[in-house]
C-alpha cells in the first residue's frame, strides 16, 4: 500500500487489513497517534486522511491507498500550530494522552469551519478525555480559531501560571542547612 504520510511517500508491505494506526505506530514509528479503545469511539487515534479527521484504528490501510495522511508529528514540527499553542496557553493539557487526537480533530474542524460556535466545537470533537478538560478545551479551540483568522496572536510557549522568578522565591531549600 502506498500512502503519503506527513508529506513523505511511504509504501507499507503489510496485510491490507492492517489498521492505519498500527502501520503508523509500528511500521513508521509515529507514536504520537495513540491506541485508546480500538473501536473508534475515544478519538485518541485520530489522524487527518485527505483533509478529514478519522479514527486510524478503524481504517484498513488497503482502503486508503494513494491517500495523504497527516499525524500529529506532521502537523507542526515546532508545535506551533494555532491549536497546539491555544491548548498550551489555555492550560488545557493535563496527562496528554488524548491531546494528539484532539489536536488533529480540532485542526480538521477549524479548516472546515473557521468560525465555529461552541456547540459546533462540542459536536466536532467527540474525543474522550479522562482528565475532564472540556470547558477549557472549547475556549482554547475558539482562541485557535481567532488566531487562524488573524484576529489574535498566541505567543509560542505561552503558559499561564506563576512567574518563574516568583516560583523560585517560594521553593524551600532541598538541602537542610547544616550550620
Automatic annotation (TrEMBL):
Q: Name one GO molecular function term.
A: metal ion binding
Against InterPro entries, the record matches this protein to: 2Fe-2S-bd, 2Fe-2S-bd_dom_sf, 2Fe-2S_ferredoxin-like_sf, 2Fe-2S_ferredoxin-type, 2Fe2S_fd_BS, Beta-grasp_dom_sf, Diverse_Oxidoreductases
CDD domains listed in its UniProt record: fer2
For this UniProt record, the keywords arranged alphabetically read as follows: 2Fe-2S, Iron, Iron-sulfur, Metal-binding, Oxidoreductase
Query: Start and end of every 2Fe-2S ferredoxin-type domain?
Result: 1-75
- Indicate yes or no for the key word Oxidoreductase: yes
PANTHER family the record matches: BLR6218 PROTEIN, OXIDOREDUCTASE WITH IRON-SULFUR SUBUNIT
Protein name per the record: Isoquinoline 1-oxidoreductase
Organism annotation: Sphingomonas lenta
Q: What is the lineage of its organism?
A: Bacteria, Pseudomonadati, Pseudomonadota, Alphaproteobacteria, Sphingomonadales
Amino acid at each position: 500500500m502506498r500512502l503519503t504520510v506527513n508529506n513523505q511517500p511511504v509504501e507499507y508491505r503489510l496485510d491490507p487489513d492492517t489498521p492505519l494506526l498500527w502501520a503508523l505506530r509500528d511500521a513508521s514509528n509515529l507514536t504520537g497517534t495513540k491506541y485508546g479503545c480500538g473501536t473508534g469511539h475515544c478519538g485518541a487515534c485520530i489522524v487527518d486522511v485527505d483533509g478529514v479527521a478519522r479514527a486510524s484504528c478503524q481504517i484498513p490501510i488497503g482502503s486508503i491507498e494513494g491517500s495523504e495522511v497527516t499525524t500529529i508529528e506532521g502537523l507542526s514540527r515546532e508545535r506551533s500550530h494555532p491549536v497546539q499553542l491555544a491548548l498550551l496557553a489555555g492550560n488545557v493539557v493535563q496527562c496528554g494522552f488524548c491531546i494528539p487526537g484532539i489536536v488533529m480533530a480540532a485542526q480538521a474542524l477549524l479548516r472546515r469551519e473557521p468560525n465555529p460556535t461552541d456547540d459546533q466545537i462540542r459536536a466536532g470533537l467527540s474525543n474522550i478525555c479522562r482528565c475532564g478538560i472540556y470547558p477549557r478545551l472549547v475556549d482554547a479551540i475558539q482562541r485557535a480559531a481567532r488566531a487562524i483568522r488573524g484576529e489574535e496572536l498566541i505567543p509560542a510557549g505561552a503558559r499561564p501560571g506563576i512567574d518563574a522568578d516568583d516560583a523560585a522565591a517560594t521553593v524551600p531549600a532541598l538541602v537542610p542547612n547544616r550550620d
